[in-house]
Amino acid sequence: MTTYRVCCFLRRFRPASNEPSEAIGDVFEAYAGADGSGSALGEEALRRFLREVQGEAGDDDVEAAAREVLAFAAEHRLLKKGGGLTVEGFHRWLCSDANAALHPRRGVHHDMGLPLSHYFIYTGHNSYLTGNQLSSGCSEAPIAKALRDGVRVIELDLWPNAAKDDVEVLHGRTWTSPVDLMKCLETVKEHAFVSSPYPVILTLEDHLTPHLQAKVAKMVKETFGDLLHLSESEAMPVFPSPEDLRGKIIISTKPPKEYLETKSSKEEAQNGSAEEESVWGDEIPDNKAQVATARQVSEKDTERYVEEDEEMEKKVQQGVNGEYKSLISISLTRRKHDMDQDLKVDPEKVSRMSLGEAAYEKATITHGSEIIKFTQRNLLRIFPKTTRITSSNYNPLMGWRYGAQMVAANMQGHGRKLWLTQGMFRANGGCGYVKKPDFLMNTDKMFDPRSKLPVKTRLKVTVYMGDGWRFDFRKTHFDKCSPPDFYARVGIAGVVADTMMKETKVIMDNWIPTWDHEFEFPLSVPELALLRVEVHESDNHQKDDFAGQTCLPVWELRSGIRSVRLYARDGEVLRSVKLLMRFEFS
């Protein structure tokens, strides 16, 4: 019995049981009973289960999967004498990492030989910040963590120090404390290819005079050496591929023709209003508000845009350092603040453009097809608006729906929107590059994510049960007087038509909840759909407690009954917590 003390009394509850749920037991009996044994799953029954439930297609795949299951069972002593898998062994294998929803050994499987513009790229924003955008510390530690997590685009803001004789990395004109540039560069070199062999793009926000640019050029060349990719010409007709750039570090910034000084963010913070978001993020909007806004955009707005988030006030600089300029392999195009001109595609030259969140959202209303066409050859980076001083993020699907490759995220801004970014880049072996769907590269017919699209497939999701909280949390973490009351939320983030969220019933007073709940999601664009899973503990008197989450790319889900690991708010994996779920496509 499990005991909880309430004042002078003891409340007793049945101990947690990790036996298979009724639904899993039924599946086992259906296959074990078919070959006469009833109490064990023989090899032939296992093969039928792998083919019919787990979706293993060819004979070779079935045989390979069967060998893996039997090897796992033998290693953990889960086979009966005389052969066959017991129901306990069957359940234990189903819940193991070997049976994960994403194939644990599939690795990189997208074509990596296409130009960079063909990929979504895992992109960080203000990569050196440890907390909020206004007063937190700057450090090389967040850069190291981001690279270890698979981030491929690191942003550094370069500023002169107080004496104007050295370079610091900090969020300019705020109360953030600086970090030495050399520390950041050495950290990039050390961790760049720990989790992925594909290129790291270093975006520099340059606020330097020519002599400091020369100093940076020397530091970059000496630190990176042969790892540094130098372009042979200023005008590239097409970007190289991730495979071409394997093991390389690329510098991307504006050609330094102007010395840029920034409006004080302290002043901006005083004039702007901080968003009141919960620690783990607001619900993802479905963009209906944006569609309504389209009707209110004036003719003047459609002809000319002034980017709300651009902080720079330009001052002419006398001279440019040539060594620094030679480092830039991907140049950042200076905006003309006329979207028709900004999105013109140059057939002779590719480049990168940056748009603030607000300006980008306006552009999708009036220039959606032009954005998609632009991103078929060029790179587009979307960065969070400056009023997000808490380092919160925005819905990255806003960028991906229109082909934007570099949707910048504050990696320290934990919450649902960052979870989506982390979910997207679990695809393709977690290498930080995910090939865009073919329809975003189609030049004959432009994709419109706002149009009414036919249902392409239906995803049926069954949530059987969960376990592991009893190992990772104190007995009184969720409720001081009883075991927790868990429920699960399951949904889709994608194009507007596919976005929805549903939830199971609450299972009272149980550390190992069994829901056996089935959901169905019609998907019009499964290639951009992310499966969202969250578990909460119901509380009648306070806000429900958060108990874990994950986000998975739908197009990489393995059919069948699968083990799904959950993560904490900060994206770190929970050591023991897993769900057992089933995925069926029709």
TrEMBL record:
GO terms for cellular component: plasma membrane. The keyword Lipid metabolism applies. The keyword Ribosomal protein does not apply. GO terms for molecular function: phosphatidylinositol-4,5-bisphosphate phospholipase C activity. One of its GO terms (biological process) is lipid catabolic process. Its EC number is 3.1.4.11. InterPro entries: C2_dom (IPR000008), C2_domain_sf (IPR035892), EF-hand-dom_pair (IPR011992), PI-PLC_fam (IPR001192), PLC-like_Pdiesterase_TIM-brl (IPR017946), PLipase_C_PInositol-sp_X_dom (IPR000909), PLipase_C_Pinositol-sp_Y (IPR001711). It is found in: Cell membrane. Residues 354-440 form the PI-PLC Y-box domain. Pfam families: C2, PI-PLC-X, PI-PLC-Y. It is an enzyme of class 3 (hydrolase). It catalyses: a 1,2-diacyl-sn-glycero-3-phospho-(1D-myo-inositol-4,5-bisphosphate) + H2O = 1D-myo-inositol 1,4,5-trisphosphate + a 1,2-diacyl-sn-glycerol + H(+). Its main location: membrane. Residues 440-568 form the C2 domain. Residues 258-279 are annotated as: Disordered. Keywords: Cell membrane, Hydrolase, Lipid degradation, Lipid metabolism, Membrane, Transducer. Transmembrane segments: none annotated. Residues 258-269 have a biased composition (Basic and acidic residues). It is a peripheral membrane protein. It comes from the Eukaryota. This is Phosphoinositide phospholipase C. The lineage of its organism: Eukaryota, Viridiplantae, Streptophyta, Embryophyta, Tracheophyta.
